[in-house]
Amino acid sequence: MIAIILAGGGGTRLWPVSRRGNPKQVEAIIGRDSLLQATYARLRRGFGVRDIYVATASAQRRRIAAQLPGLPSGNLIVEPCRRDTAAAIGHALLQVSRRHPKETFVIINSDAYIRDVEEYLRVIRLAGSMAEAKPDHTMLIGLRPTYPETGYGYIKTGRLIKRLPSGRGRKADFVFVVDRFVEKPDLETAKEYLASGGYLWNPTLVVGRVDHFLALFAGHLPKHAAIFARMAKAFGRPNERRAVQALFRRLPSVSIDYGILEKAEKMLVLPADFGWADVGNWRTVKDILSRSPEENIIKGLHVGIDSSGNLIYSFSGKLVATAGVCNMIIIETGDAVLVCPRERAQDVKKIVAALEKERRLKKYL
Questions:
Q1: Does the pLDDT of residue 105 top 80, yes or no?
Q2: Reduced to 3 states, what is the DSSP secondary structure of residue 124?
Q3: How many CB atoms within 10 Å of residue 179?
Q4: Among 88, 187, 236, 320, whose Cα sits 20 to 30 Å from the Cα of 201?
């Protein structure tokens, strides 16, 4: 089985640490290792080093190679520019197909937190076994929601098609037909989803066979398929690198969810629970690291008086002092300071959008 780590995203909601030239996946947001290093180490507990690939943008190539010295150079798949996840996944699978056209794969985002790694790897292998048994289907791993989250997309489960026997100390596994995908809901709708029991969080953990999934582009993203076909013809030729880069730049920007997953037939989902969280904003970082809502999470130097429930990161070495400050996010880097209430963490991306509109402030992106 092949694991493909997507490591080309931007992470605007983790500004000012995550920047265009220094995205969140290469930063130590949680713990001492970067998010990418943690993801790679997690997969190495269940995959051989030659079975792990990393797809990233050319601007991050050197940084990622330095962070993952054990990754074979041929397993680093480089994109000349960002064209969203459909292009990234299709290009990665096309490169993998040169050696493993009928291999089973799993797509892994580089910015997730996993609490139970053994269960995580077990579920991936189980989904892989299902994909091998049904090579004309695509498997998704859906996560049983534990609270009414409004920041995630959902999968509505359809009819049950398989019950897998339970092992020692764990419940049975079930495989369902995917009924439909649901966009990020409002709070009341999310509460209804949680109460119904028929909806799963969608972490875009995709499992399938390389040749089958590449064939889905022809039916749902024909422009991508045509460009991938031209890329394949360039393989092995003297101008391969230049030709592939030029063709990649012509790919439309479309997400894999919208471009293929929400439209394709023969989609199955395996519900799971292994303590997953998308490290997408500073509030999530606080929630992952906290033992209680009142606990302060500190990185760097801090002195606090009557301060609780805060996430305070100082990356430049400056002392951060607080008095009477509660439930806030304070992130300090060498050239910027972010201060916002914990419940407004999603709005950090609006700050980045505002910076993009101001020419004199673009140096902070």
A1: yes
A2: helix
A3: 15
A4: 88
Q: The pTM is what?
A: 0.93
State the Cα–Cα distance between residues 2 and 46, nearest whole angstrom. Answer: 11
What are the structural domains of the chain?
2-278 (3.90.550.10), 282-364 (no CATH)
Q: What is the pLDDT of residues 2-53, one digit of tens each?
A: 999 999 877 789 999 999 888 899 999 998 999 999 999 999 999 999 999 9
Q: Is 103 in contact with 3 (CB distance < 8 Å)?
A: no
Closest CA to 204 of 9, 56, 50: 9
* Among candidate residues 19, 90, 12, the one with its CA nearest the CA of residue 55: 90
> Chain centroid to CA 129: how far?
22
Name the percent of the chain lying above pLDDT 70: 99
Q: In a 3-state reduction of DSSP, which class is residue 332? A: strand
- Whether the bond between 16 and the residue before it is cis, its omega within 30 degrees of 0, is yes
Given phi > 0 = left and psi -120 to 50 = alpha, else beta, which region is 309?
left
The tokens for 153 are 């997309």
Percent with pLDDT over 90 in the chain:
85
* Calpha distance 143→270 (Å, rounded): 8
Cα 194 to Cα 202: distance, rounded to the nearest angstrom: 14
- Which amino acid, one-letter code, is at 119? E
Distances (CA, A) of 132 to 128, 167, 206: 6, 21, 13
Residue 220's SS3 state is helix
Q: Which two tokens stand for residue 112?
A: 């997730």
The answer to whether residue 109 scores a pLDDT higher than 90 is yes
